[in-house]
Design brief:
The complex is a heterodimer. Chain A contains 15 helices and 4 strands. Chain A is mainly alpha-helical. The longest helix of chain A has 27 residues. The two termini of chain A are 38 Å apart. The N terminus of chain A is likely disordered. Chain B is built from 8 helices and 10 strands. In chain B, α4 crosses α5 and α5 packs parallel to α6. In chain B, 46% of the residues are buried. The chains are: A mainly alpha, B alpha/beta.
Chain lengths: 341, 263
């Protein structure tokens, strides 16, 4: 074959290892545009807060108060990234969170070990996640509407069964679980360490595991995934089960922090958790997502409320700034995200 | 003579009372490129879906390496070493080249943890094998950044990774520029040199003429011509034959029809 006959795809040997993706910094930036963008939003927001009221934001107290409740949000937001990346949505997680935490509370109230209660909560979360997922996937329902229905139905069941009564679990304060799961370690609430471990595990699952790879492919091109032998429905159901597991952990930690279970447990997280996913840089169309971005998104959403009140503005401003930050982040990500179809 | 890889004998397919295929014979030998030509509705897609096992023929016989196979299915087709690259739904375009090549067959350790280093090495080897390398992208590049011809390269590399002996390309050069078409031709030649076979489907006769060793022309579910490249003087001869076939009531076949029974 002559040189002229060689086609334009021939390689140039001289160019080996010179590719931008092989450069350590540029490769990292290219692969992490969305979470880095979210991080930039967080940094700018915090700088504004610090400038507005240094006396509040240079004290550790405000950070400790955010870190107390942030873990609950992280357990919800991170698995939601998987479901959204798989091209679905789950609005049933608040009720799953309340339901699983209810099982935990019942086990502890009955005098059993809180660790057994935790196991019961996890099993409940996984089962509910499976039911929701199977409903959506095998009955071919719209996940937006079907999971909304499940959220109402499960919450209704809780209300009917408990007649709206909460469960106080003061015995927890004397138990070792309190210091392990919601104590203080070097000035930081211990639940934060569990949540960080969860985020790191989920990030590996998303980027270095077959499950994460399949979630992305199914969200990207389900027909192609099917043809290549991936069980598309099973992958979708697994993503819903993961949300159920996260919701169970969120419910457990929320109950541990408050030492009380409320029948409304989880209700307030529906919109903030979803907002965190999208503020974090996971797009709505499926196929791509970012676990780290979602975690930073949760941090941003948690800080808006504390920050605005801390900056001396009245609570009336919270909703306005919540909305403003969400819209600005979405515009930023829109500009940042390359869409291939 | 080269080994006969697959043979479809007298395949018919009817949807209700409509015949999509009325007795088609198609055979592919090892290391050859068969060009399957026909207009829209000629039965090309039905035929390749039968070959891929996703559509069951109404009647007919399928032989793999001379042995008749019963209960033909997508799994049997894959076992026989047939990989089909469908036109629009082959690739996940927001994922990397690596993720597409190993889609559904990831290289993994315990508990599904991916062996990314081995995947990257293997992907580079596969891409080199079909002459698909460039300084513009690496195996980690996103498929959506590649051109149309390069995307066909990813799909072909995946088929080779899956041990395909026969790769069926469904309209691989439709809507591609000349440069991109040449890239696809380059990949196809590399695949042929490695002893594998290709069925190249298209309705651009110039494209098919440029790459195929043998032509099969389908029209309204019937095989109108099967000819070796040596027997067809030019793409124009093939086109005039096709135009003649397309006439509703043709008086008589032109000269090319004499080669009909060959080889």
């Amino acid at each position: 074959m002559t040189d002229a006959a060689k086609t334009p795809v021939e390689a140039s040997d001289a160019a080996e290892a010179a590719h931008p993706l092989d450069h350590p910094v540029r490769g990292f930036v290219a692969a992490n545009r969305a979470p880095l963008g979210t991080l930039a939003v967080l940094v700018v927001m915090m700088a504004i807060f610090i400038a507005a009221s240094p006396q509040v934001f240079l004290e550790w107290n405000i950070y400790r108060s955010v870190l107390t409740t942030l873990p609950v949000a992280l357990f919800l937001v991170v698995p939601l990234v998987f479901v959204v990346t798989a091209g679905e949505i789950d609005l049933s997680f608040p009720a799953t969170m309340g339901f699983s935490a209810w099982m935990f509370a019942l086990v502890v109230q009955a005098g059993f070990s809180p660790y057994l209660g935790l196991a019961a909560a996890i099993a409940t979360g996984a089962l509910l996640g499976f039911l929701v997922g199977a409903l959506v996937v095998y009955f071919r329902l719209s996940s937006l509407i079907a999971t909304l229905g499940m959220n109402f139905m499960l919450r209704g069941l809780i209300q009917i069964a408990t007649q709206g009564k909460s469960i106080a679990l003061l015995s927890l304060t004397q138990s070792s679980v309190k210091s392990v799961f919601s104590g203080i370690l070097v000035g930081v609430p211990t639940q934060m360490f569990w949540a960080l471990a969860f985020v790191m595990f989920a990030s590996l699952l998303f980027n270095r595991n077959q499950f994460g790879a399949h979630v992305k492919i199914v969200g990207d091109n389900p027909d192609s995934a099917q043809q290549m032998g991936i069980d598309v429905n099973l992958v979708r159901v697994k993503a819903f089960v993961f949300v159920g597991l996260g919701a169970a952990l969120a419910g457990f930690f929320s109950t541990m922090i408050n030492v009380t279970w409320w029948p409304t447990s989880g209700d307030g997280y529906l919109l903030p958790a979803l907002a965190s996913v999208f503020v974090g840089g996971t797009p709505t169309w499926g196929g791509v997502g970012t676990v780290g971005g979602g975690a930073i998104g949760a941090l941003i959403v948690s800080f808006i409320q504390t920050g605005i009140v801390g900056a001396g503005l009245s609570g009336f401003y919270v909703q306005f700034f919540n909305g403003l930050i969400i819209i600005l982040s979405l515009i930023g990500h829109r500009w940042n995200q390359i869409r291939y179809r | 003579m080269a080994q006969r890889l697959i043979e479809l004998r007298n395949i018919t397919k009817s949807f209700g009372r409509v015949y999509a295929l009325g007795g088609v014979n198609l055979s592919v030998d090892a290391g050859e490129v068969v060009g399957l030509i026909g207009d829209n509705g000629a039965g090309k897609s039905t035929l390749i879906k039968i070959l891929a096992g996703v559509v069951k023929p109404t009647s007919g016989e399928i032989l793999v390496r001379g042995e008749p196979v019963h209960g033909w299915s997508a799994a049997r087709s894959r076992e026989a070493g047939i990989e089909t690259v469908f036109q629009d739904r082959a690739l996940a375009v927001q994922q990397s080249i690596v993720r597409n090549i190993f889609m559904g067959c990831e290289l993994k350790g315990p508990l599904g943890w991916l062996d990314t280093a081995r995947e990257a090495r293997e992907a580079e080897r596969l891409m080199r094998e079909i002459g698909f390398t460039s300084k513009v992208f690496t195996p980690r590049s996103i498929v959506g950044q590649l051109s149309g011809g390069e995307r066909q390269g990813v799909a072909i590399a995946r088929a080779i990774y899956r041990q395909a002996d026969l790769i069926v390309l469904d309209e691989p050069t439709t809507a591609l520029s000349i440069t991109e078409t040449n890239k696809v031709f380059h990949f196809v030649r590399q695949v042929r040199e490695s002893g594998r076979s290709i069925v190249f489907i298209g309705h651009n006769i110039h494209h098919v003429y440029g790459i195929a060793d043998r032509f099969v022309v389908l029209d309204r579910g019937k095989m109108e011509l099967e000819a070796k490249r040596a027997d067809v003087p030019s793409a124009e001869a093939l086109i005039s034959f096709m135009e003649d076939v397309a006439k509703p009531n043709r008086p008589g076949d032109p000269g090319l029809s004499e080669t009909k029974a060959a080889p």
